[in-house]
Amino acid sequence: MTQSTPTQSADNATTQPQARLMIGTELAAEMVTKAAVRAEALRERTGVQPCLATVLVGDDPASATYVRMKQNRSKKAGIGSRSVVLPAETTTEELVAELTKLSEDPEVHGILLQHPVPAQIDERAAFEAIAPAKDVDGVTMHAFAAMAFGEPGFRSCTPGGILRLLEAYEVPLSGAHAVVIGRSPILGKPAGMLLLASNATVTYTHSRTKDLADIVRQADIVVAAVGKANFVRGSWLKPGAVVVDAGYNEGNVGDVHFEEATEVASLITPVPGGVGPMTIALLLEQTVDAAEAQTAAGTASV
């Protein structure tokens, strides 16, 4: 990627230009197009159409909208979709039973449980009911172990999408100091594992971290995943840092104060249009991966 150069202001003072944007939209579209080609090839060769089952518990408008968006993108990629909508009062046992049924259904190749789930549900127990071969969202402990140990398996979609975006923009990871803000099991933790696997030096930070701004200021790469609007300020950043905003808050606002950060960072993801499209694209790509693997395994066992 080309490097930015200083610009001259009216008074001839040298100033740093705003950060370049890491746009996920075009790269995600390329990934979906390639997934569609593979899905069609699989259908023509075997008669099998990749199928993604989405499971939504309750009637949260934002979650329902997100599920519909994923289903629409699935159709564009030649992936069939099956929608399971359960009432808000669903118990852990009922949800586990539904996910187990989908895991055992040979016509379903990938399973997405929309999260967060209602408070009465043990989310981890629900995730673990998804068969690892169909965990195309990368939410099970099996998937996390695979990411941590560098073994084959599905990546958590948002962290995996982040890595693909960093690679596309040729961000050097080996030897870089990456600070991950947030430690959720499906975003912060796996993001750190994937960065570590790329030979970055990784620091995890969270709600109990002392002197957070000072730690972030040491980072070559910042991954913000805290779910708080405008949480990371421009003054926290080292000049030239690469900033990945994995947050999405009300009003299309990320976890990073965008206007401040663009004055300091060299690269930054916008919200929306940065990480979000990559998440869905990787989900669809991994659904096709799962369909190919399950079809091949079924053929081998005949």
From TrEMBL:
Residues 24-137 form the Tetrahydrofolate dehydrogenase/cyclohydrolase catalytic domain. It comes from the Bacteria. Keywords: Amino-acid biosynthesis, Histidine biosynthesis, Hydrolase, Methionine biosynthesis, Multifunctional enzyme, NADP, One-carbon metabolism, Oxidoreductase, Purine biosynthesis. GO terms for biological process: L-histidine biosynthetic process; methionine biosynthetic process; purine nucleotide biosynthetic process; tetrahydrofolate interconversion. InterPro entries: Aminoacid_DH-like_N_sf, NAD(P)-bd_dom_sf, THF_DH/CycHdrlase, THF_DH/CycHdrlase_cat_dom, THF_DH/CycHdrlase_CS, THF_DH/CycHdrlase_NAD-bd_dom. It catalyses: (6R)-5,10-methylene-5,6,7,8-tetrahydrofolate + NADP(+) = (6R)-5,10-methenyltetrahydrofolate + NADPH; (6R)-5,10-methenyltetrahydrofolate + H2O = (6R)-10-formyltetrahydrofolate + H(+). Pathway: One-carbon metabolism; tetrahydrofolate interconversion. One of its GO terms (molecular function) is methylenetetrahydrofolate dehydrogenase (NADP+) activity. Its EC number is 1.5.1.5, 3.5.4.9. Residues 156-294 form the Tetrahydrofolate dehydrogenase/cyclohydrolase NAD(P)-binding domain. Pfam families: THF_DHG_CYH (PF00763), THF_DHG_CYH_C (PF02882). One of its GO terms (cellular component) is cytosol. NADP(+) binds at G182, R183, S184. Homodimer. Catalyzes the oxidation of 5,10-methylenetetrahydrofolate to 5,10-methenyltetrahydrofolate and then the hydrolysis of 5,10-methenyltetrahydrofolate to 10-formyltetrahydrofolate. HAMAP family: THF_DHG_CYH. Belongs to the tetrahydrofolate dehydrogenase/cyclohydrolase family. This is Bifunctional protein FolD. It comes from Kribbella amoyensis.
